Amino acid sequence: MHSRPRRADGVTLPELCIVLAVSAIVLGIAVPDLRDLVRAQQLKAATGDLFAAIDLARAQALARGRRVKVVPRDPLGADWRMGWQVFDDRDGDGHPGMDELIAEHGPLAPGIAVDFAFTNVARPYYIAYNGAGRSCADGNSAAARWGTVSLFHGGHIRRIKINMLGRARVCDPARDGGCDGAPAPP
């Protein structure tokens, strides 16, 4: 009886090199799209978190019958990228005390830029609601205050628009009409 030479199972080195080369090309094409997808999701999450904080401030102002504010955690009151705080401003000093703090959010993902454009553009930046649930000025609960907070990341834009009555909405200028605001930073 003759025995046939046995064929080795597995792949040869040239076959393995071809598979690795094709995989590298496909991965090279997909990586930029994945980065863009991550940026879009980071922006969507940051916008949703800030919108939830604004909504919480309005609900708490209605429930408490007092002014509730959302302010950046930045000591100068200008940089929303450092996060924000929602608080019941009982003493009217514009800064939360430990007993007044309702919620707090940490820093945003690196690369996210935020622009704040309200009827009063002077610092410190804030969003305030009076006991009736209307957006208001810091020193006068009867004075309406409205505007837009714009968030930018990797060519994507989301805006939170607050109208005179204090109602907030999220919009995307790429698909929604009436979603104007600050231009994207260079």
Any overview of this molecule?
With 186 residues, this protein is α+β, with helices and mostly antiparallel strands. It is built from one helix and nine strands. The chain has one helix at 13-64, and strands spanning 68-72, 84-88, 101-105, 113-118, 127-129, 135-136, 147-153, 156-162, 168-171. It has a five-stranded antiparallel sheet with strand order 3-2-1-5-6, covered by helices on one side. It has a four-stranded antiparallel sheet with strand order 4-7-8-9, with helices on one face. β8 (156-162) and β9 (168-171) form a beta hairpin. The longest helix is centred in the N-terminal third of the chain and has 52 residues, at 13-64. The N and C termini lie far apart (80 Å). The mean pLDDT is 88.
Quick recap:
The chain has one helix and nine strands; from the N terminus they run αβββββββββ. By secondary structure, it is an alpha+beta fold.
Strand order of the largest sheet: 3-2-1-5-6
Q: How many β-strand runs? A: 9
Order of helices and strands: HEEEEEEEEE
Structural class: alpha+beta
Q: In angstroms, what is the radius of gyration?
A: 26 Å
How many DSSP helices? 1
Task: List low-confidence stretches.
Answer: none
- β-strand percent reads 15-25%
Largest sheet: 5 strands, antiparallel
Mean pLDDT: 88
Distance between the termini: 80 Å
- Envelope shape: elongated
State the share of residues found in helices, binned by percent.
Answer: 25-40%
